[in-house]
What we know:
Layout: H1 3-20, H2 26-32, H3 37-65, H4 67-86, H5 91-103, H6 107-118, H7 124-150, H8 155-176, H9 198-201, H10 209-236, H11 241-269, H12 272-289, H13 296-310, H14 313-324, H15 330-355, H16 366-384, H17 398-402
Helix pairs in contact: 1-6, 1-7, 1-8, 2-3, 3-4, 3-5, 3-15, 4-5, 4-6, 4-8, 6-15, 7-11, 7-14, 10-15, 10-16, 11-13, 12-13, 12-14, 12-16
Amino acid sequence: MNRSFWITTLIAFVNSISFTILIPILYPYGKQFGLTDFQTSLLFSIYAGAQFLATPVIGKLSDRYGRKPLLLISLAGTVIASLMAGTAQSAMMLFLARFFDGITGGNVSVSQAIVSDVVSSQERAKAFGIYSSATFGLGFILGPASSLMAQQVSLGASFLVSSGLAFVALLVTWFFLPETLQVKAEKATNIFDIGLGNLIKGLTIPRVGILLVINFLIGTTFTIFTFAFQPYFIHVLGQNSESLTLMFVLFGTLILVMQVKGIPFLTQQLSLVQILLLSLLIRSVSFLVMPIVPSLTYFVSVSILFSLFNALVQPMITTLISLNAKPDVQGTAMGLNASYLNVSNAFGPMIAGSLIHQQNPVTYTYPLYLAGILTFLVWLLAIATRQHYTPQAPGSSLKDRAT
């Protein structure tokens, strides 16, 4: 792995902490403004919906103008938006901040495209494993842990810390990250051709389109869970925002362990596709059994199993897309992947929020059961279509070609 890879991973790591600080406090922070459960779910959805519109544009522009300028713009948006949210005096300002953060949020897709630029196809699974362990592993530990400390001041203080960290990532990008795009895409003759059309066209990309569909469905089911488990944890299990934050620390720790130790071991034993299918099956079963017993000990036990295998899903999807996409469209492919994942993030919380009725506590279990059933159906789809996304490019493993 070269210097640009490690600098990019550092930037993504700092940005991940900036993002994950907010995850445990967004639900209780929305409640401070008098929002209902459904209205609070819209704080998640408006951010993801804005990202859905922006990410393919940012991915396309990064193929055309370079990775670095687009990454700087995205990080600057996070700095400003988190500052707005942390000092918000009304729910309207909070919603506006979430929208602005989403519309400038191409940080992840651009940094993933940089990894694809600088790492050979043979090393890409390992590279994305390291990248994910730093961002979705260690970042998911230190982010909630930082949030726990910031909460001692106020919930809004978490947004201010998030803004400061994003500013650090911006400075590292500005001073230390070189431009990694070697061959820029041709400028469009139509100035309005900035990538939104690729949302539909992307589905026709051979061996990539089906992965976009699968990841969209994976994201929808997962974000049904990620929103629903928070009110379930607080209202059914009788916990508070601090214990909720500790759950996210646990999730992050398990993600890190699996991505550092699990991925290298499993990729020697199984193909990328087999690992993905196994992970989806265990995720489905976990969602279905989580709400059966309303006990904190039971919930944590199931969550441990879920977290270990859930940590494998996105690294496998990202690697498969990267291996199946041609070099000159890596940024576009990663942007499309992030965009479809973001729109799924918009639907999931709204679905969960619409099923919950605070006057009827049993409804807090409904989204968890629904997430389990839908994930099982996605698992069946992934099995049925696996021949269409198994890597065929030079450098992919023999196991992947034979799957």
